Amino acid sequence: MATARFSPAVFTAAAACFIINERDSGVWLAIMLHRLAFPLIYILGPRLLPGVIRFIRLVWRLTWDKRVPIVLRALVPLAVIYFLLPVDLIPDFARPGFGRADDLIIVALAVVLLTKLAPQRVIDEHLGKPPASDRPEDKDPSNVVDGSSRLIDE
Questions:
Q1: Whole-angstrom Cα distance, residue 66 to residue 60?
Q2: How far apart are CA 94 and CA 85, in angstroms?
Q3: H/E segment holding residue 15
């Protein structure tokens, strides 16, 4: 006698129909998000993770670098403290889901301000870029005239 085999796709579709029939859309959404999010993380993770780690290290180094103005260095720690404190501009219970969004917006704004307003030479140094040269030979080599000279005493 032959046994019936179910593929994962058939099982997932059957589970989704059962969940929809039970009117529990939260569980259905969690299952679908799980099935969509993990493949994206596995595909995009190796490409995005090194850049994210490099950016986090840059923010950490800029926060502790004495050449960055103190006001800019204080933005990220103050934003993290605001994120952790229970006091909010928009209470979490007032609008579910949006209460944490204002915390994340403030942290993101602090990070963007720190990275955009910090001195560029300090950012380049922390990223490992060579310093920019002011020599005309490096800027436009076609405008440089090479030649030799000889000093004649009279």
A1: 12
A2: 17
A3: helix 8-21
Output the CA torsion sign for 57, 60, 65, 68: positive
Number of domains in the chain: 1
Using the structure block, give the residue that is written with the tokens 């307003």. 117
Residue 78 CA to residue 71 CA, distance in Å, equals: 10
Domain residues for the domain of 109 are 47-132
Residue 67 lies in a domain: yes
Q: Is 111 exposed, middle or buried (0-12, 13-18, 19+ CB in 10 A)?
A: buried
Identify which of 29, 34, 27 has the alpha carbon closest to the alpha carbon of residue 8: 34
* Spatial separation of the C-alpha atoms in residues 42 and 148, rounded to whole Å: 61
Q: Is residue 72 part of a domain?
A: yes
Q: What is the pLDDT of residues 30-79, one digit of tens each?
A: 677 777 777 888 888 888 889 999 999 999 999 999 999 999 999 999 99
C-alpha 132/C-alpha 11 separation (Å) is 59
Phi then psi for 140, rounded to 5 degrees? Answer: -145, 95
Q: What confidence tier does 123 reach under pLDDT thresholds 50, 70, 90?
A: very high
Q: How many residues in the chain?
A: 154
Residue type, 137: E
